[in-house]
Amino acid sequence: MKSQTASGLESIERCVSMLSSQYGDPLLNNQRDPIDELALILLSDRTDEPKYLAAFQRLKRRFCQWEDLLATMPSDIEREIRDAGMGRRRAELLQQMLRAIYTRFGSLNLSALASMSADDAEAELVRLPSVGRKAARCVLLYCFDFPLLPVDVHTYRLAIRLGIMSRRVSYERSHSLLPPLIPAHLRRSFHVNAVAHGRARCFARNPHCSACPISDYCSHPSAVTPLPIELRPRPLAIDLFAGAGGLSLGLMKAGYRVVQAVEKDPQAAATYRHNHPGTDVIEDDIQKLDPISCLKRLGLRRGDVSVLVAGPPCQGFSESNRRTRTLANPRNHLYQEFLRFLDAMRPAWFVLENVAGLRTMARGKILREIIDRCRSLGYDADWKELNAGDYGVPQFRRRIFVVGNCLGLPIRFPDPTHGVAHKPYVTVLQAISDLPHLESGASVDYLSYGKNGRSLSGYQRAMRASANRDSGVQGNLVSRNNQLVLRRYSHIRPGQNWQAIPDDLLDNYKDSSRCHTGIYHRLEWRRPSKVIGNFRKNMLIHPEENRGLSVREAARLQSFPDNYVFLGSIGFQQQQVADSVPPLLAEAVARDIRDAERRVKSLCSPGCQMPRCQVMDRRKELPTARTSSIGFRCALDGK
Ligand code: SF4
Q: Domain 6-217 is in which class?
């Protein structure tokens, strides 16, 4: 049989010490007299504590000595214990046990056990009727101070949850296997505090794990501490409010495997499914979903996911939204669903994305609340506003990213790769000039690439590479505008907006002064695009053609590769593109997280006992189905 490793022993000592501080080594009604202790244990079998204690007290009052009880009729004993729900059978068992002691030891006195070895004394006791190994050890521990470990259901359960013993060990076998794994000087404290812990919170079902002092060492799925994750070649991610899948695409490019996505909108879910056939897409309202059931669909457990990402609906936080930018808008509280999933799933990392307006919404109250709630769940969390243009996206798009982890690692955000002192920004010309020439109302989805006489930019080559074809591209759909709108377009030069439209063409705008600068904005070839919001409603105009942007042009400006297909009618496609997180921006954030994980992995050593660490893959050392986060050696390992 293997013994504990030194670090395992230290961990047991820490657990016992924490339990001892919490419960104070309770006496648990244990008796100093061995016959009293045996009688009490016999009465306690399948009887509630207050009842068997009352029955024991009545017997002690009625019979001055145990010899008196031995000499009486069973019906007299039965009368004293009936109120506790015990009957004739229990009375006879009590007498049988006392008679056997008398026969074996010559009197009702067990003091002879004190001069025996622990094994011999235990063997003597278990020969008595109704005395099992647990009862024998309780007598020897509490009455004779033998350093034995009585194994009851509480001790057994806790030993398994802490990974001291494999869950493959039966309760019967645990009587032999568990004691050698607990140091002799800790056995009494381990037992009494495990019983107190089992009665107070560590129940067989639905243990109360919040605020449990030893949750950091526990492998139970409800433990507050995240469980160790398996380091796979591609760590797992889940995407909430997945939309068309921009965040997921970035994660995948950074090396994650997105195993599940939640999206309520049927068109966006269809797009997601089409482009990510290997992902489990849950097309439902997230408010109706149970996070643990979502994990179970995948055969995963709490703590198995590396990254949880979410981009809750953000129009309500947008500074350009003057109608519903209030706390009264229920859609402005969907971030609570993300926090609910974070609490339940316990990923190592999380990423929450939203519009820059989140920073100022309710004077920053919402953003502060998100950070505070993440921290209260045990995550280090921080936020930063990132501009997609700084990461190679041909678009100035500012977004808030809240990033956190429960590994104790510092939170970093990706360094810009484009802009001042870096590579030049990717321009609209470099992004879309190779796409087909189109007109307002263009409706032929698949067309050959355009011929503009220029060689392809690096960005265009990258966008086409994934499509794996040079001949054509999908998504050449443009909204049809009426003649008035087309005449307005004709007055706007690159970089200008609605303010360039003559007044006589704006007379159906009730209050043109309330238009924001993004309305009727014509893109400039030599600069990154303005933010791709709702580009149909905002009338974002092609740099030189009098029409709005096609779905593919908008997708290119969002950094979606050409093989990414959007489904649904043109309006739905436009909305999906506009609502997406640019995959290149998502990839930059995800790569930073992946790099941080790799750095820690390279520092991990087999003896590391960092209590909250999820990175170390202890399952390779410990082949049991589930091991505790401190990696105790299992008694059956290697057998
Ligand atoms: S975390 Fe929960 S299951 Fe684990 S020891 Fe504490 S109460 Fe028991």
A: mainly alpha
CB of residue 259 inside a 6 A radius of ligand 1: no
Q: Tens digits of per-residue pLDDT, 368-420?
A: 999 999 888 878 899 999 999 999 999 999 999 999 988 777 888 999 999 99
The amino acid present at 135, given as its one-letter code, is: A
pTM: 0.60
Task: Report the Cα 394 to chain-centroid distance in Å.
Answer: 34
pLDDT digits (tens, 9 = 90+) for 553-566: 999 999 999 999 99
Q: Is 47 exposed, middle or buried (0-12, 13-18, 19+ CB in 10 A)?
A: middle
As annotated, the active-site residues are: 314
The Cα angle at residue 499 between residues 496 and 503, in degrees rounded to 5: 135
Is the shortest distance between the CB of 161 and ligand 1 below 6 Å?
yes
Domain spanning 236-424+583-594: which CATH class is it, in words? alpha beta
Ligand 1 atom closest to the Cα of residue 214 is: 6
Domain with CATH 3.40.50.150 in the chain: 236-424+583-594
Span 33-46, average pLDDT: 93
Per-residue pLDDT tens digits for 512-558: 566 666 788 999 999 999 999 876 677 899 999 999 999 999 999 99
Whether residue 201 has its Cβ less than 6 Å from ligand 1: yes
Centre of ligand 1 to C-alpha 100, Å, is: 41
